[in-house]
Write a structure and sequence with these properties.
Layout: H1 17-24, E1 32-33, H2 45-56, H3 69-83, E2 92-95, H4 98-109, E3 115-120, H5 126-132, E4 136-141, H6 152-157, E5 163-169, H7 181-194, E6 197-201, E7 226-231, E8 244-247, H8 250-261, H9 269-280, H10 282-304, E9 320-324, H11 332-343, E10 345-346, E11 348-349, E12 360-364, H12 369-382
Parallel strand pairs: 1-10, 3-4, 3-5, 5-6, 6-7
Antiparallel strand pairs: 2-8, 7-8, 9-12, 11-12
Helix pairs in contact: 2-9, 3-9, 4-5, 4-8, 10-12
Length: about 375
């Protein structure tokens, strides 16, 4: 909307299909919503009860500017126990969500006109977050024929004197790809060769199905040039708690802290206490929930591949499916519109995740298997995607 009182930076329409799903979900009373990645399961009751008791005990005030010291200690211990990585306290910053963590990192490292390479399909906010920090997003398409792995040779061709950083997201939203260690090592060698930073979005670290998750900073030579963004939203089903964290070299954390003091000051204290309980008890909390979503994904893959004009690669991680609908002969938007109107099923058109997403839709397996069955039964019954 153009108005003299609105900054000219926002005069162009910034709306995306991701931002419209809330209203679309209300189109019909019986919509099965497979759009947003908000897990349907409620946060573990023990996390809730622990945070409640901590609130009653007085944890309702500002915390330390970099986060609750106990939580920072637990994060450091997680990396030591699970990944044999040494992370000291000065390298940790707790944030009010993973999204804010990414923006704070970009704000801290970018000068006007610096380029940041992101691989597509990508998490939708990346582009605008880079632009808000006065950077320039540069997109590297990944291909189904390559398993949506990053092609490092094509990545190198995008690097210019203005390139400052590369964003890596594995396990990947929306493709479900997990980058192999060989891919991560090749990216690392390139980052060192070109003296680049890596912003590693590891929001779905718990959902690595095929092999144990590999943090980017565990690759030799990368810890000093990696900013790790993580969150409790998906790994612990705490989306509404809005709590995440950054692990980065201490001089970057110092700058990020100073920026954050002028944005939200500190992350919510009660959310931090819930996160503390979650991380301490992760070995008992995470496995059951990961198993539930992995089972749903496996079921949905089977049903999708039974539709004549649809196909999907079995994902190696996350609870998303990146569905190839090119054989329908329909545009991505038309497929999603047909799904909503004929089957009352809501999905997101692939172009929301970059131009290479045309020909794909994203399905989030964030409903029960019974609801997934109902959704695919409706799709079959409408007969719109058979040839």
């Amino acid at each position: 909307m153009k108005h003299r009182f609105i900054s000219k930076r926002y005069w162009r329409d910034l709306a995306t299909p991701m931002g419209k799903v809330d209203q679309l979900a209300k189109t019909y009373d019986d919509v099965i919503d497979l759009s947003l990645g908000d897990p349907d399961l409620t946060t573990d009751s023990q996390i809730i009860e622990s945070a409640f008791q901590d609130a009653l005990s007085g944890h309702t005030h500002y915390t330390d500017f970099r986060g609750d010291p106990e939580l920072r200690q637990a994060i450091s211990k997680l990396y030591e126990e699970d990944h044999h990585l040494s992370v000291n306290d000065q390298e940790i910053m707790v944030t009010a969500s993973g999204c804010l963590a990414m923006y704070l990192c970009l704000e801290a490292i970018l000068d006007d006109g610096d380029e940041v390479i992101i691989h597509a399909p990508y998490f939708t906010p990346y582009v605008q977050q880079i632009e808000l920090a006065r950077g320039v997003p540069v997109v590297l398409d990944t291909l189904e024929s390559e398993g949506f792995q990053i092609n490092v040779a094509r990545l190198e061709k995008l690097i210019t004197p203005q390139t400052k950083a590369i964003v890596i997201n594995t396990p990947n939203n929306p493709s479900g790809a997990c980058f192999s260690r060989k891919t991560l090592e090749a990216i690392g060698e390139l980052a060192i060769k070109k003296d680049l930073l890596i912003l590693s979005d590891e929001i779905y670290g718990a959902y690595s199905f095929s092999e144990p998750f590999t943090p980017m900073m565990s690759i030799p030579g990368l810890k000093e040039r990696t900013l790790t963004i993580s969150s409790f939203s998906k790994d612990y089903l705490m989306t509404g708690w809005r709590i995440g964290y950054i692990v980065a070299p201490d001089y970057l954390i110092e700058t990020i802290q100073q920026i954050n003091e002028n944005v939200v000051f500190t992350a919510p204290s009660i959310s931090q206490r819930g996160a503390l309980y979650a991380i301490i008890h992760r070995k008992t909390i995470q496995p059951p929930l990961v198993s539930i979503y992995q089972e749903r994904v496996a079921y949905a893959v089977e049903r999708i591949n039974q539709i004549a004009t649809w196909s999907v690669l079995p994902p190696n991680g996350t609870f998303y499916l990146w569905v190839n609908i090119q054989k329908t002969g329909m545009s991505t938007t038309d497929v999603c519109d047909t799904l909503l109107q004929k089957a009352h099923v809501l999905a997101i058109p692939g172009f929301a995740f970059g131009s290479c997403g045309e020909g794909y839709i994203r399905i989030a397996c964030t409903v029960t298997i019974d609801q997934l069955k109902e959704a695919f039964d409706r799709i079959d019954e409408c007969g719109c995607f058979e040839k």
